Amino acid sequence: MKKKNNSIEQLEDSPANPSRRSLLKGASLVGAAAVSSLAGSQVLAADSAASANKSGNSPLREALEVLTAEEAETLEAICDCLIPSDEHGPGAREARAVHYIDRSLASHNSGARQNYSIGLNAINEFSRKTRGKRFAHLLTDQQNSILLAVQTNKIEGFVPNGSGFFNMLRSHTIDGTFCDPYYGGNQDFVGWDMLRYPGIRLGVSEADVAAGAKLEPNHQSAYDHSTYTKLADNSATEADGGGDYA
Amino acid sequence: MPKQLGKTDVVIVGMGAAGGVAALPLTNAGLKVVGLEAGGWLSPRDFAPDELRNGSRNWPQSVQKAASEAPTVRATSNDTAVQGGHPMMNAVGGTTMHYWAQSWRLNPWDFKVVSETRRRYGADRLPAGSTVEDWPFDYNELEPYYDKVEYTVGISGQAGNVKGRKNSAGNIFEGERQREYPMQPLRASPFTDLMGNAAKSLDWNPFQGPAAIATELFDGRPPCQYHGFCNKGGCHIKAKSSTAFSVIPKAVDTGNLEVVTFARVIRVVTDDNGRVSGVEYIKGNETFFQPAAVVLLASYAYENVRLLQLSTSAAFPDGLSNNAGQVGRHYMSHHQGAPVFALFDRDLHNWYGLPAQGVAIDEWADDNFDHSDLDFIGGANLWVHTDRKPMSAAKMSTFGQTRNWGSDWKAFIMKNADRSNTSYIQKTTLPYEDNYLDLDPVVKDPLGFPVTRITARYRDNEKRIAAFSQEKMAQWYLEAGAIKVSKAGLGNLMGATTHAYGGTRMGLNKDTNVVDEWGFSHEVPNLGVLGASVMGTSGSRNPTLTVQALSFRTAEYLANNWRSIVG
């Protein structure tokens, strides 16, 4: 099941949450070791509770920025085949890989926008022609066999070809499942948990490395660290920028 | 007409690895230096631990000057060259902002490939078609400058040969050095221990390679915290000894360096006497002329060559300093590809670690082993390192065990994300007659100037080293307990690379080299060239420290011989 958008975690990931930013602002980075993940998570916990109270249950506003509704529906079904939700746990759907891809097509993947239109349409046309239904409405086995045919160049109509389109889809789906949650995917850190990646740490001890995947996942985005947010205080990082030298 | 600026002593084109180092001895000597840089200043705040931003989004390189003039590439002159990406970045500090920071000295053999090959194996062992020459000096000439850079920029590492005393904790094949590194090497990890022990059981000599990364408090900069986002990311605490955080601020503090950011140099100007008089650059929508007594080119190899080729004049109709037709010749893309992949049956604990934190093997590099019965010269440094991030981990090879998507694949990566490793094998790469850089006849940058065209491919010598070193690498992985190994192809096309050499080669013979043994043009006495474009051999390890030692040496020579060079 797709998660509702009004979860606490969703709000917590939002970089535009002013109360959280002001709380984190004091904990600016001096040396990496100065940032304690324990202190950080306490701040987050207190803050997300406040956010939840303030926002009540009103749904988060969220657009399809680039994809059409039908494209998004088709892509959702494809991502679900590539990294399925199964007995081993959540997959691309829970990570919201499609949400990530949609946003990325408006920014760093904008060059791929046309290929998505052409490719997703080709998949639906093939699906209608051979099965009489849109791709998203097929059984999982039927969907998998179509995707395999795309990957092995058995179906025409893709740019540059089926396998090229498939490789791009696969790469973007992985990006959306395992990227920093700031970009709209890897929701609730399901991707990082899937790989047993314990999360971003600004300072890592030898004991941390020895613990490896046994480290408690800290579930922090890079942008949970105040240094990297837009409104951070430059003087706190002793920036050598143009102010001093240019 | 360009806006005329006040004359300066020295103008340096590019404030990166090379130009940043050169600025310090010049400004310390009291010379006035203008450093023109195509990028801007960055701060630790700019280096978020964000794999997507560093990798897929290619921040901030995707919008920079270098990206807008990326070279075109073709294997031979019969092919059509296609434009790809540019791997370097524009910033104060240049690519030292986001490099891995491996900071090697070349081995003594790399300076004397021709004479040593003749002496040990006979002249017929030099590969056919290669234009390789001995360097104009040997390792011992550069040793004091390696030392100065290690202690000025800040390099950590374990010495293997101090004044002839060998230490097997370091590289026993390195040339003699006068003292230890200023800082201890980066620390070991469960993975480096695993690979180090396996190497020892093969009777090889494993060691932690040198890095431009502080491991102790150095010059007020804190030691590395091992969070591991060096690759295409800068350091969040300035532990990485990028020139922007080490030598450039010191040069600025002398009061003698003016750094001009977002300056795009378009031409080196020549006077009626065939000497250079300064450079023209564009900043914003204005064109400036910066007059200077001496011009030092310190941009990347492609840009150094291109700027000379674009700077035509009555005295130099085929490009500046190119009356002997050597600009663009003797080009090499370092053969760093053709890796070996390994899968282990246990977690390797590599989620936190750096590309520069690893284990090196030098037994099979350079001429460290007997080539009598082999069909190539040179060799490869084997390197494995601790660095893993989730997106790239999920894109790991499946080693033929599953389709690369779906439920089985998901189970595979859930189990194996921290169990794979990819080696980094740097191979001796030689220059050849028809490997070269020229101006592309079709593709232009946004200003309308042609971009660089690379025409180059690896030859038998490089491919044989690749095959030989892959065997050694596979043997090493299997000794360490790998349950699967696989090998990449041996390579052909020499693409645009982070290790580009040649094009303005340094040598005594002015018919086959662009600059003399001090880095100054054979044809233009007040024009110097800094960077790997002057290097005539690649070595089998990263070039930056050698580039920096050469830059320091050229700058010191200029300061000490100012009157005779300025004339």
Structural features, described:
The complex is a heterodimer of chains A (246) and B (567). In chain A, 50% of the residues lie in helices and 0% in strands. Chain A has helices at residues 8-13, 18-25, 37-55, 69-82, 92-95, 97-104, 113-131, 140-151, 162-178, 190-194, 206-211, 242-245. In chain A, helix 2 (18-25) packs antiparallel against helix 3 (37-55), helix 6 crosses helix 9 (162-178) and helix 8 packs across helix 9 (162-178). Chain A is globular and about 60 Å long. Residues 1-55 and 239-246 of chain A have low confidence and may be disordered. Chain B is an alpha/beta fold. The model of chain B has no long low-confidence stretch (mean pLDDT 97).
**Fraction in beta strands of chain B:** 15-25%
Oligomer state of the chains in this structure: heterodimer
Shape of chain A: globular
Estimated radius of gyration of chain A: 21 Å
Share of residues in helices of chain B: 10-25%
What structural category characterises the helix and strand content of chain B? alpha/beta
User: What is the makeup of the main sheet of chain A?
Assistant: none
Radius of gyration of chain B: 23 Å
Mean pLDDT of chain A, as a whole number? 79
User: How many beta strands in the DSSP annotation of chain B?
Assistant: 22
